Amino acid sequence: MRWLPGGDTRTINYYSPYPVVMDRGQGCMVSDVDGNEYIDFLNNYSALIHGHAHPGVTAAISRQAERGTVLGAPSVVQAEHARAVSERVRSVTQVRYCNSGTEATLFAIRAARAFTGKDLIVKVDGGYHGTHDVVEVNMFASGQGKKQAGLPDSFPPVDIPHGVPAQTASQVLVIPFNDAAAAAYVLERYHHEIAALIVEPMLAAGGGIAPHDGYLHTLRELTRKHGVLLIFDEVATFRLGPMQNILGIEPDLTALGKIIGGGLPIGAFGGRQEIMMQFDPGSDNPLYHSGTFCGNDVTLAAGVAALEHYGDQEVSRLNGLGELLLKSMTAAARDEGVKGTAAGVGSYGHFHWGEGPLRNAADVHSRSQNLGMLPALFHLEMMNQGVFMSRRSLFCLSTPMSVQHIDAFLEAFSSTLRMLRPYIAKTHPNLLLSD
Questions:
Q1: Which one is catalytic: 40, 233, 252, 297?
Q2: b/e 46-72 (16+ beta carbons within 10 angstroms → b)
Q3: What domains appear along the chain, each with residue ranges and CATH number?
């Protein structure tokens, strides 16, 4: 498109030869401008828990729009949404709103630094927490970059993305996911400088990697022992429970977004009252936090409606469907003679080519190397088969889906692998199972 570099405004939406232009969505289906229909297993990168145009959500948007989209003042719907979030997330006693998951992690980190009086942040290699500078360090595990001074060679090298100041690396210590010993090492050695450790309970965008048993509990124990705040980024994993409720862990701060906005832009962060009270404008030396559309009324109305229609029963049903899909995909790949693994938790997953352990982002990166055009061909053929998912093979479910939609996905998946098998035999024979 002439007016948009790359034809869109999100890097993640681009794929060759050009992205399909979508026209409308209804339930779990989307249609492009040429009239082709797809089952939407992308759901705007997991932000749409009810798919498209859910009647309860659209009615709430319409009602609030008639009353005003953003009133620029405290409102009843803001209190209603905050109560709904606090009731769902045990560790969140107070909440503040922003406009994206990026802002949510930015302000959670700022709150941690202000509360502790320390500046250093620990984050996980390949952990995705948005696109502000500090969390873009090792946003994608690349195995490139420079070794962190003072840390063992087994730790990930620090990778600074293009456009992020090089000195940002001095503000972050990077550790591998699912490695409690690495976390213990940095916290023991640098706790007097560390404000917070930020982690996704599941390495979501980094490959759908589940935490090992006890890993997150150990992080909670270590951070509490060393006077470091623990931040859970549940922007993606809130749809699963949230995960901190499932695991029985209470972080000090939590970042939220995606499904709590009912399909409209939102971010939120919250936690213990003594931390969050730093944002009270009536307190001494308060933290400043503002934004024209923070906590806007129409988004919060949509979010309240979305949460009302996503209770424990729907969470359980959708996670059950997701677990069925994850297991069936791995089995289907094997049946087609292809080495591949579906990884994830509940209604959120990824497909990975090859075999071997998937403990952390480095394992995901290793499995994704030297694949050439295979991932792109897989993505395009899945679309030809009527399934819309991410170009990096991320998929997630929405409440309009049923077992029939899972079966349709698996049929398309098997057909796609069958069609690609001669290409795989020619270009990547190592990805074929021996007879």
A1: 233
A2: bbbbbbbebeebbebbeebeeeeebee
A3: 5-53+312-431 (3.90.1150.10), 55-308 (3.40.640.10)
